[in-house]
Amino acid sequence: MMKSLLFSPHPTPPLLPAPRLRSLLRLRAAASSSSSAPPRADRRSPRPAPSRRPPPSSLYARPSLLDMERERAARRADVDAFLASLGVDPGELAGLELPVTVDVMRERAEFLASLGLAREDLAAYPLALGCSVRKNMVPVLDYLGKLGVRRDALPDLLRRYPQVLHASVVVDLAPVVKYLQGLDVRPNDVPRVLERYPELLGFKLEGTMSTSIAYLVGIGVGRRQIGGVITRFPEVLGMRVGKIIKPFVEHLEGIGVQRFSVARIIEKKPYVLGFGLEDKVKPNIEALMEFGVRKEALASIVTQYPDVLGLELRDKLVAQQSLFESSILVSHEDFGRVIERMPQAINLGRTAVLKHVNFLTACGFMLSQVSKMVVACPQLLALNMDIMRMNFEYFKNEMERDLQELVEFPAFFTYGLESTVRPRHEMVSRKGFTCSLAWLLNCSDARFDERMKYDTIGVEEMEAEESSGMNAFVEEAESEEEEYSDYDDSDDEFVR
């Protein structure tokens, strides 16, 4: 046995009895703990307070993203409910960043209401509620106010072009105002232009505005007249040349109006460009020809009275022809001559016509004579009654001429008594001349002074003057484009 233990590859140490082994292990453990423990402090020395470490920060201690989304959705629901109470469809503002609180949205709605916009206006353009009062609305309104836009004009301006609330004063508005001033629109007229046509605040300078102005100048509109054209009719800045302006000009040229005459019409009455070519102009030209106007007279009518292109003409012509036929015995053909010589007769009211007809018949003219006088000189129906009465009394009491002379030359009533009729009659009387009314009146002052140098009046000259008297009067009236152009009220009167 001893031999086997000596030659074993892993000799086993001799085993100790179990109780002795356990006591030995306890002694070793006690010695180890006593050597590693710190020395015991004095009982009288204070113990240090235990330090508290801050709790570690964590994202999970804050509101979760889900909670934030829920809160945002709840606020947006409140804003949408407020919009619905205003009559605005919240769906139209779904993609727009709106205020997070109802109070801010209420401030915007109340501010827009203070400008004169109703709930219907907000419903028509809900994007206005996306504008900040301080960042968008106030700067724009301050700028318009400094230009001179009237406070009472703002509601209509904002209804027609609410996009101005989104505009930048520096980038969008100021360049347009500078462009208008560069076209000779006076500073005092700029706010009136913006009030009448606020849409131009959204136009690009190099677009429709510049091309329309260039075309007008090209057809003969005076460069210095452009400012007045824009002031009276700013809508021209939004008209396309190829679709509106050029076809209008070419159609007038097609009926015989010379291009320079078209340019003069546009200078004085630019709003004619707003008469629809297909809806108004062409049908009115056709109506004139249907009621006896000759094609060669169309240019003269348009030149004298451009407004005829924009009237509800057919109905007016039907009514006027019936009036002239019943009260003055004017035939269909003669009615066309009346319109050719004074197209404003289309607008004469029944009261004005009958008043003048009754005056002439009271003077002793037969109705057939009145008819002839009106056809030759339709202006009789629109003259001032007091002036007609004074002229007739002078003709009857001082000149002592026959009524037939007035039938032959009814334009006598259109001349001023003190400025023309009386001084010329007295000069002729002193010379001892006997002449017709046409020879006496239907000439310029220079021509009349030259005639007064004659010793006698040639019979040939008298006959020529009588035959051309009324034609010359009509041509003179046609050459003065604005002589009767302001005649709109059917009961107004005028004197030549």
From TrEMBL:
Physiological role: Transcription termination factor required for processing and steady-state levels of plastid transcripts. Required for splicing of the chloroplastic group II intron. Required for the accumulation of 16S and 23S ribosomes.
GO cellular component: chloroplast stroma
UniProt name for this protein: Transcription termination factor MTERF4, chloroplastic
Record field: compositional bias (Acidic residues): 475-496
Keywords on record: Chloroplast, Plastid, Transcription, Transcription regulation, Transcription termination, Transit peptide
Gene3D superfamilies xref list: Transcription termination factor 3, mitochondrial
Chief location: plastid
GO BP term, example: RNA splicing
InterPro entries to which the protein is assigned, alphabetical: MTERF, MTERF_sf
Feature: compositional bias, Low complexity: 27-39
Region span, Disordered: 27-61, 464-496
SMART domains, per the entry: Mterf
Composition skew (Pro residues), residue ranges: 47-57
Superkingdom to which the source organism belongs: Eukaryota
Compartment(s) of residence: Plastid, Chloroplast stroma
Family of the protein in this entry: Belongs to the mTERF family.
